[in-house]
Amino acid sequence: MRRIVDTNILVRLSVIDDAEQSDRALELLSRHVLHVETTVILETEWVLRSAYRLGRSSVSNLLRKLFDHPNLRFIDPTRVGSAIALHEGGMDFADALHILGSGPRDDFVTFDRALAKSAQRLWLDIPVHLL
Predict the structure, then answer these.
(1) With CB atoms 3.0 to 4.6 Å apart as the test, which of 14, 86, 103, 104 could cross-link to 62 if both were Cys?
(2) Contacts for 91-98 with beta carbons within 8 Å, 24 or more apart?
(3) Degrees (nearest 5) of the Cα angle 95, 99, 105?
(4) How far, CA to CA in Å, does 41 sit from each of 4, 45, 66, 108, 123?
(5) Alpha-carbon gap, residue 48 to 110, rounded angstroms
């Protein structure tokens, strides 16, 4: 049986603001392989940025540490790893995940000028069109 974690577990592993819960999360991680849904890492980024007011660099570093941990298995590792890399390059993490969910023959359409500009700057293989 797989152990799939919630956002609060990843947050406790990233931000030690509740010592007892962080210790329990670390103990769980040391004893088990934990699986992470893409929506959970998306929410984790949002919590770190919004609730904890961490900047892009700090959030990227924490996401990278989680992604690189040998006992964390991401349900869609290629998409998540690429989204972290795009985030490190300046793209919004949620936008990166949305675009990377597109297939190789898809066009991604948006009203978001910043997203379209960021996608063009980062030379994404998936065409992003501003509507």
Answers:
(1) 14
(2) 91/115, 91/118, 91/119, 91/122, 92/118, 93/42, 93/45, 93/59, 93/63, 94/42, 94/45, 94/46, 97/38, 97/42
(3) 170
(4) 12, 6, 9, 22, 24
(5) 25
Could you tell me the two tokens for 70?
A: 């040998």
pLDDT in tens, the chain (131 residues): 899 999 999 999 999 899 999 999 999 999 999 999 999 999 999 999 999 999 999 999 999 999 999 999 999 999 999 999 999 999 999 999 998 988 778 888 999 998 888 888 887 778 887 88
Tokens for 5, please give them.
């974690």
Tokens of 100: 């990377």
Alpha-helical (H) ranges within 15-52 are: 19-31, 38-50
- Which tokens go with 114? 């910043």
Tokens 């540490």 label which residue? 65
> What's the whole-model pTM score?
0.89
